[in-house]
Amino acid sequence: MSIHAQRTLVRQLLDDSSAAEAPTAYYALFHDPTRSTLFTQADDKGRIIGFAGLFQTGIDLFRPLVVLHCQSAGSAADLLDQALTPGRPYLFFANASQLALVGEKLRVDNSRLLHIYRLDVRRFQPMVNVLARRKASHDGSPRCVIESGGQQAVAGVNWQSPGFAEIFVQTDPEVRQRGWGLSVVSGVTQAILESGRTPLYLVEADNAASRTLAEKLGYVDTGVQQVYADVIYPSH
Questions:
Q1: Domain ranges of the chain
Q2: How many angstroms separate the CA atoms of 159 and 151, rounded?
Q3: Whose CA is closest to 30, among 61, 55, 12?
Q4: How confident is the model at residue 30 (pLDDT cuts 50, 70, 90)?
Q5: Do strands 133-136 and 142-148 pair parallel, antiparallel, or not at all (unpaired)?
């Protein structure tokens, strides 16, 4: 079955208009098809009940990203058996509810729980900073940079689907507390809105500074968490 036919099936399980499902939906439905492999499972009536996906990304050239969306532990176990190679390391990126389904099928290390924040447009007030320069990344996605004295803050997009885009921000330690991070995230947020997408911001629960930054710009916690972890598949 072609990747396009599989995506038609997978779409039955996902709501790509939901911020809570947007990270999973991006990889399952919109990531470069030449770097995507899907494994699907149906019940005895032919209804799709789960999928696992392997994706080659720029995050790690040697460890594929694993995305999982299943309704039961049995389905998750069957799909991981199909998709993964014993002893090989992977990156696991899925809704936090999926982690409970994998049980002992994966050896999980360095697990991070990320809160999914979505912009509330009514609360967004752009930050004006004459140092902030908006530009496009090599893939055409928005980017905003402040550079001064050899230090910089940069914000951009990790991924974007037709409906959403996830923002990242990096600020040199020496220039934190100057509002540079806030300014560059504001610039990218504005560019995403202009493209017709909804900005998302994923942040760990204990990263108080990053959560404060998001909330100052009008991002609100959806209450849904995404897990990002190093995993190894021990065996079938």
A1: 3-115+226-232, 121-217
A2: 25
A3: 55
A4: very high
A5: antiparallel
Judging by beta carbons within 10 Å of its beta carbon (0-12, 13-18, 19+), is residue 207 exposed, middle or buried? middle
What's the CA gap between 67 and 55, in Å, rounded?
8
Query: Are the C-beta atoms of residues 160 and 140 closer than 8 Å to each other?
Result: no
What would be the CATH architecture of the domain defined by 121-217?
A: 3-Layer(aba) Sandwich (3.40)
pTM above 0.90, yes or no: yes
The per-residue pLDDT for range 51-106, each reduced to its tens digit, is 999 999 988 889 999 999 998 999 999 999 999 999 999 999 999 999 989 988 89
Percent of the chain with pLDDT over 90: 77
What is the bridge-based pairing of β-strands 219-232 and 198-204?
unpaired
Matching fold, domains 3-115+226-232 and 121-217: yes
CATH number, span 3-115+226-232: 3.40.630.30
